[in-house]
Every structure is written in C-alpha cells, then in structure tokens.
C-alpha cells in the first residue's frame, strides 16, 4: 500500500498542491497590482472620467458584502474567480458612464488590489 501511495503521489502531492495555491494567489496579486497601476495612470490622463472612482467604490462595497472584513488572500482569489459577473452587474446598476466597459477590468483588479491589503495574511 505504501508503494502505491508513492506511485500515486503520496505526501509529495500535498506540497505540490500548496505550491499551486501559492502560485495562484501570487498570480492574482500581480494582476491586481497591474490593474491598480493602470488605474493610476488612467486617472492622470486628460479627460479621465470621474465615473471610474464611482465604479471602484461600487466594486469595493460589493467585496465587503461578499468577503467581509476578515478574510484570507485565498478567499479573495476565490471570489475574484466569480467577480466578473457580479462586478459587471453592480457597476451596470449603479455606476455607469460612457465607455465604462473599457475600464471594467482595470477597476475590478484595482478594487481587489486595494481590498487585499485587509487580508489577515497580507504581506506587501
């Protein structure tokens, strides 16, 4: 039986899963950081719509409802996987401006970046 466990992965598989989870979290954090940086760049452009800040607030409010105030980065990444639908709907209902879909991905990622700072396991 022990030999079968080694052939099927045994305990090393647990370490691989942990590495995959850590990589998944780090990948999402890089996406969020990039979106946050792009949001800052777009805010400095002439004619930048004020609606982007409203969108950011709306997504952040929804995050607070869905994730709460005590959460891990893993939980936030899991919610990020579901966010396209609910974030788009929330913005469409409360914070649209002309061309809002073109900034949607940036706003969504930036909101997650800012919210991630409140994770219990956050490290800069």
Explain what this protein looks like in three dimensions.
It is a single chain. With 124 residues, this protein is mainly α. It has one domain (2-116). It has helices at 2-8, 12-43, 51-67, 73-94, 100-116. The longest helix is centred in the first third of the chain and has 32 residues, at 12-43. Residues 1-19 have low confidence and may be disordered.
Secondary structure layout:
Layout: H1 2-8, H2 12-43, H3 51-67, H4 73-94, H5 100-116
Give keywords.
124 residues; mainly alpha; 0% strand; globular; disordered N terminus
The run of helices and strands is: HHHHH
Largest sheet: none
Shape: globular
User: What is the typical, i.e. mean, pLDDT?
Assistant: 84
Beta-strand portion reads under 5%
- How many domains? The number is 1
Count of β-strands: 0
- Gap between N and C termini: 44 Å
Number of helices: 5
Helix content: over 70%
Structural class: mainly alpha
Oligomer: single chain
From the alpha-carbon coordinates, what is the Rg to the nearest angstrom?
18 Å
- Uncertain segments are 1-19
Summarize the structure.
This protein is mainly alpha-helical and 124 residues long. It has helices at 2-8, 12-43, 51-67, 73-94, 100-116.
């Amino acid at each position: 039986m022990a030999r079968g466990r080694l052939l099927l992965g045994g305990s090393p598989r647990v370490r691989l899963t942990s590495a995959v989870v850590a990589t998944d979290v780090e990948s999402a954090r890089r996406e969020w950081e990039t979106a946050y940086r792009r949001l800052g760049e777009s805010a400095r452009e002439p004619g930048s719509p004020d609606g982007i800040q409203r969108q950011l607030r709306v997504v952040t409010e929804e995050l607070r409802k869905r994730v709460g105030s005590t959460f891990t980065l893993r939980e936030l990444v899991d919610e990020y996987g579901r966010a396209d639908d609910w974030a788009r709907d929330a913005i469409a209902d409360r914070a649209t401006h002309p061309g809002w879909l073109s900034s949607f991905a940036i706003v969504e990622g930036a909101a997650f970046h800012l919210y991630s700072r409140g994770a219990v396991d956050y490290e800069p």
